[in-house]
């Protein structure tokens, strides 16, 4: 309670909707009862729907008749009215006038981004510029640009900030660092031939889904009006610049104000906003930008007339009808108004302040953690201050954890332990390779080396060559509480912060068959009702392990645990996800003889490896020999 009182003293003006119709405690008690025993901290991946929201949707769908909007019945008219209302709600959310903007419904933010990429008027004189911090769904646009002969390059953008923490909109306050230019059809155009009649596209996220850093909307006007100046006269800066914002993450708390900033394209997903529906997003598009998109495909609902046996088609004039192929997801569209009702009740500004108070509190606590030797525990990946008044930081806290000796805890280890503690979060690079490489300090050679070592998205290779390949991400939603943040803080403290104790490097870790030991440290451990029943060692990653009652520790954890791995003949690192039969390979280590034994039910012989008694790493030549022999065992089982 003292901790919460301290928190409220610092963040009480922002936390918990003090001026709203419901406090955060009332919201959790009435609308998120299913979270009673769960700490959900992956709102950047998908936020949660309210139970009252779903009740309202169910009542709506079970008491109304919604027909296909392409029909002419009364139920179709009802659907058309709901869709029209939903479009206006989306525009209102971003303060966009229907005179200037239209709302095109898509299957999600990714589909909205793809729509822009595949229909943009690319030419060999065009440029696609994007910030390093971008989701793969934005990077995918690069394929369309390069295939049409356009140039593409990433940029790092740094903004000057006033002493009061506000970003300045002057072009002189923006520093742009350009990465190498990418081209596929260089012979088609020379740099000197680039002219001002090309259409260029600049893309960036309103909030980085890796670090939570928010980018200023002032970039819209700066790029549109001063691209040549900020790119220092680069020939690739010429032409008409259009701006695309990926607002899938940032729109949940700070939607772009399109009455002030003339963004050409804004992509959003509704499950990122209020949890339901999934599979529905929108592209908010300026009317003049819509006229430039060159759409090839047509379908039901997008044409005024077509003739089957000759080359004739006349497309519809309306922007929405022109780009929405087939029947839109009208029942999902009918559901979003119930989500917007929540947002309108709480207000986005109050939600933003509430979420930021939790993020700032968590950052402050994590940065204060120290191991017993004084070394810091947490490395945070952002470039913002801890001011609550700062609007540069969103709902995300991205981090990695270090041991007292400076080595890294693997993020998958953190995720698995968090799951055991009832905490759900996300780890990895979050489909944002540029931000991941930037914040983790991974060079191109590091990334290629990791790939050659077998590392791909979503695997368990979390530390390679002493460097993390991803991070741990905590992200809050409008329904998150102080207790959620506190439980994560307590989890980090109890699981990863070293404190003075009797357990030192070199001690033997013992499992007790008696759940109620009676002396020494064992007495103190039993006071919590917890005891260690057995220990399982897995010498070869993804192969079967063996259980023991006691086992030596090393500086990295259990000695010899996951010290070896299996490779295919082609050098690919194998796991049970790829080859489930690896679970049939059994292992055992005889500590007295210092021998690792490996057996397979499909192999007559037993492979025995002599491990070094001084250090548990073999010499290089011996290790390669063992690797080859392990491969043969795998081959004989039919695994490879």
Automatic annotation (TrEMBL):
InterPro entries: Aminotrans_V_dom (IPR000192), MOCOS_middle (IPR005303), PyrdxlP-dep_Trfase (IPR015424), PyrdxlP-dep_Trfase_major (IPR015421). Coiled coil: none annotated. Residues 39-157, 241-488 form the Aminotransferase class V domain. It comes from the Eukaryota. This is Molybdenum cofactor sulfurase-like isoform X10. Signal peptide: none annotated. Residues 531-611 form the Molybdenum cofactor sulfurase middle domain. It comes from Durio zibethinus (Durian).
């Amino acid at each position: 309670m003292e901790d919460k009182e301290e928190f409220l003293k610092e963040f009480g003006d922002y936390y918990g909707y003090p001026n709203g119709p419901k406090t955060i405690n009332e919201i959790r008690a009435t609308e998120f009862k299913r979270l009673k025993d769960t700490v959900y901290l992956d709102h950047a991946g998908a936020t949660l729907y309210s139970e009252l929201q779903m009740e309202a949707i169910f009542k709506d769908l079970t008491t109304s008749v919604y027909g296909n909007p392409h029909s002419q019945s009364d139920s179709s008219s009802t659907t058309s009215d709901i869709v029209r209302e939903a479009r206006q709600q989306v525009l209102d959310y971003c303060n966009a006038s229907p005179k200037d903007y239209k709302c095109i419904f898509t299957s999600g933010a990714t589909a909205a981004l793809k729509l822009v990429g595949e229909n943009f008027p690319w030419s060999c004189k065009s440029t696609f510029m994007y910030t390093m911090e971008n989701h793969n769904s934005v990077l995918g646009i690069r394929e369309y640009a390069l295939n049409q002969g356009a140039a593409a390059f990433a940029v790092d953008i740094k903004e000057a900030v006033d002493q009061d923490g506000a970003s300045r909109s002057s072009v002189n306050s923006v520093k742009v660092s350009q990465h190498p230019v990418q081209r596929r059809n260089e012979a088609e155009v020379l740099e000197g031939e680039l002219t001002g009649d090309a259409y260029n596209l600049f893309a960036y996220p309103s909030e980085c889904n890796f670090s939570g850093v928010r980018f200023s909307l002032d970039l819209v006007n700066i790029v549109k009006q001063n691209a040549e100046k900020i790119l220092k006269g680069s020939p690739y800066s010429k032409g008409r610049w259009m701006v695309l914002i990926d607002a899938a993450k940032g729109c949940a708390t700070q939607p772009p104000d399109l009455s002030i900033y003339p963004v050409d394209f804004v992509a959003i997903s509704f499950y990122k906003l209020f949890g339901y529906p999934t599979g529905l997003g929108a592209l908010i598009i300026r009317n003049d930008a819509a006229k430039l998109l060159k759409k090839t495909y047509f379908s039901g609902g997008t044409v005024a007339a077509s003739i089957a046996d000759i080359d004739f088609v006349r497309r519809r004039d309306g922007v929405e009808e022109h780009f929405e192929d087939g029947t839109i997801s009208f029942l999902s569209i009918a559901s979003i108004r119930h989500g917007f009702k929540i947002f309108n009740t709480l207000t986005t500004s109050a939600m933003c302040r509430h979420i930021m108070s939790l993020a700032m509190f968590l950052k402050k606590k994590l940065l204060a953690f120290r191991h017993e030797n004084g070394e810091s525990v947490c490395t945070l990946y952002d470039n913002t201050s801890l001011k609550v008044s700062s609007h540069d930081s969103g709902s995300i806290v991205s981090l990695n954890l270090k041991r007292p000796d400076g080595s890294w805890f693997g993020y998958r280890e953190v995720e698995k332990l968090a799951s055991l503690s009832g905490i759900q979060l996300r780890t990895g690079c979050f489909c944002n390779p540029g931000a991941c490489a930037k914040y983790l300090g991974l060079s191109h050679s590091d990334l290629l080396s990791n790939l050659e070592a077998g590392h791909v998205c979503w695997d368990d290779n979390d530390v390679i060559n002493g460097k993390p390949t991803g991070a741990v991400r905590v992200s809050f939603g409008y329904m998150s509480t102080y207790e959620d943040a506190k439980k994560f803080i307590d989890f980090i403290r109890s699981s990863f912060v070293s404190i003075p104790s009797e357990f030192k490097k070199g001690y033997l870790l013992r499992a007790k068959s008696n759940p109620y030991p009676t002396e020494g440290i064992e007495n103190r451990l039993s006071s919590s009702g917890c005891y260690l029943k057995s220990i399982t060692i897995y010498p070869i990653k993804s192969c079967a392990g063996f259980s023991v009652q006691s086992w030596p520790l090393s500086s990295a954890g259990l000695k010899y645990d996951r010290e070896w791995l299996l490779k295919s003949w082609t050098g690919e690192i194998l796991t049970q996800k790829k080859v489930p039969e690896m679970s049939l390979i059994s292992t055992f280590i005889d500590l007295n003889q210092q021998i690792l034994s490996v057996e397979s039910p499909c192999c007559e012989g037993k492979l025995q490896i002599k491990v070094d008694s001084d250090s548990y790493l073999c010499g290089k030549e011996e290790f390669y020999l063992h690797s080859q022999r392990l491969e043969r065992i795998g081959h004989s089982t039919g695994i490879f």
